[in-house]
Design a protein that fits this description.
Helix content: 10-25%
Number of helices: 2
Distance between the termini: 34 Å
Number of strands: 7
Strand order of the largest sheet: 1-4-3-6-2-5
Order of helices and strands: HEEEHEEEE
Number of domains: 1
Length: 113
Amino acid sequence: MPRIVIILVLILGLAAPAGAGNICIADYESQADARVYVVNYESQADLCVYVVDYESQAGGKDELWYYVDYESQADASIFFVDYESQADIKVYFVDYESQAGWEKGNKFRGRLR
């Protein structure tokens, strides 16, 4: 009996949708998981980001962001900085989902979902 319960929990856990790229914009740098700088050109970015309209579209991917209002709803909180040298991640916002993705290796890869 306990083995069946464990198996069901594992199956249901794997079948549940992965945490989407729910992003909360922090009011203060100290509240953020990552400091983000927005670059002007795709070639300067560590991560190309596409902002989705619905939470279900983010699908647990770093490059697909869905903005939430509260940190408790977020998978990660970010703070936008004014200078590139202050950033943990440099992002470029793209117009199409197919353009989104990591351009360079970064210590935050896989942590924004």
